[in-house]
Amino acid sequence: MRKKLLFLLFLVLTLGLLPAAAQLPAVTLKTIDGGTVRTDTLNNGGKPFIIDFFATWCKPCNRELDAISEVYADWQAETGVKIFAVSIDQAQNINKVKPLVDNHAWEYDVLLDPNSDFRQVLGAQMIPFVIICDGKGNIVYRHYGYTDGAETELIEKVRELLK
Q1: Pairwise CA distance, residues 151 & 81, whole Å
Q2: What are the backbone angles phi and psi of residue 78, rounded to the nearest 5°?
Q3: CB–CB of 64/150 below 8 Å?
Q4: Taking a C-beta distance cutoff of 8 angstroms, is the pair 89, 107 a contact?
Q5: Quick one: which of 53, 39, 50, 80 has its CA closest to 140?
Q6: At what angle do helices 151-162 and 59-79 cross, to 10 degrees?
Q7: Three-state SS for 110?
Q8: How far apart are CA 40 and CA 59, in angstroms?
Q9: Which of 6, 121, 125, 163 is the most exposed place for a label (fewest CB within 10 A)?
Q10: 93-127 pLDDT, tens per residue?
Q11: What is the pTM of this model?
């Protein structure tokens, strides 16, 4: 039944039948410290937040998260935005996530999606994949891939939400 529900939601998302401001689906993920969190409860105290899907082996993902890391403190001071970095590394590689995060000194809340359940239910076909949610948890923006400087578009979208 769960697989059918996930497939239906995937179909709806990929066909674009959901409104532009769809709520986050409920998927249980692990935190990098071993806890669990339901994705439909992710929030930032009424402020926008960004969810960035990555993998340890994905060079564009790592470049994107590094680029954001360089300006993240400024973004937080200006907008209060929060970033959740979601690793899609499979279970056998999950032990590589924390060392990568520590090595890059990323200050993000890192979540683990080893079966790509969250990514799939959102209809993401590739990574890096980024979504921006408004202060109520509505998905208001989606972006695939990364090119140098693309992080500027993310903060601009966040600023638009705060107007």
Answers
A1: 13
A2: -80, -45
A3: yes
A4: no
A5: 50
A6: 30
A7: strand
A8: 28
A9: 163
A10: 999 999 999 999 999 999 999 999 999 999 999 99
A11: 0.85
Q: 1-12 burial string, b = 16+ CB within 10 Å, else e?
A: eeeeeeeebbee
The C-alpha torsion from 94 through 98 and 103 to 106, rounded to 10°, is 110
Q: DSSP of 29-89, one letter per residue?
A: EEETTS-EEEGGG---TTS-EEEEEE-TT-HHHHHHHHHHHHHHHHHHHHH--EEEEEE--
Task: Round to whole Å and give the CA distance between 154 and 161.
Answer: 11
Residue 104 and residue 63 in contact, taking contact as beta carbons nearer than 8 Å? no
d(CA 103, CA 39): 26
Show the tokens assigned to 152: 């500027």
Is the model's pLDDT at 13 over the cut of 80? no
Residue with tokens 């993902």: 61
Whether the bond into 25 is cis, omega within 30 of 0: no
| Residue that the structure tokens 């499979």 belong to | 90
3-class secondary structure, 140: strand
Q: How confident is the model at residue 8 (pLDDT cuts 50, 70, 90)?
A: very low
Contact 56, 96 (CB under 8 A): yes
